[in-house]
Amino acid sequence: MARIFEYFVMCGIGPEIRTLYEEKGFHGTGIMYLPSLLDQYPPSDHKLYSSPPPQLPTCVLPAGVAFYSSGFDSNDPSTFPRSYPIVLTDGDGSKIYVSCIAFRDPVSEDIAEAYHIPANSFADKCICLVSRSPSFNVLRTSLEEIFMLCFSSSGSR
């Protein structure tokens, strides 16, 4: 039986910040930044599986990464987590199905300090399940549960 997903991937602002125009560094909150692959499972050095497509961070956060002065606000729908599917075509014509949930997450202290980003800033982050099977409902439900467990202050249902 085939795996339900091949990779769990996290994308967002990486250790080397660049604007969409390839300018290095932090240039303020009104600027969009290139997304990076932050983490994945299985790890990239795993011998049984090929790596996810290198363009995946740009595909899952196509507008780039924005910085914000606040995170989730229950009174502001623009701050709510967003779930969405993506279908990519591999070089051999096969389909890659990606289920995503994007949200605002606190900027790590190391990155904020290194780039002089205001304290308590937030940036776009996206967690994804990459699959060869078009099981979007199962993948979305799984991602929402992972989000609640790992990134939400309210915890899991």
Automatic annotation (TrEMBL):
Ranges for domain UDENN: 19-157
InterPro entries linked to this entry: DENN_Domain_GEFs, Tripartite_DENN, uDENN_dom
Stated name of the protein: UDENN domain-containing protein
Organism taxonomic ancestry: Eukaryota, Viridiplantae, Streptophyta, Embryophyta, Tracheophyta
GO biological process: regulation of Rab protein signal transduction
Top-level taxon: Eukaryota
GO CC term, one of those recorded: cytoplasmic vesicle
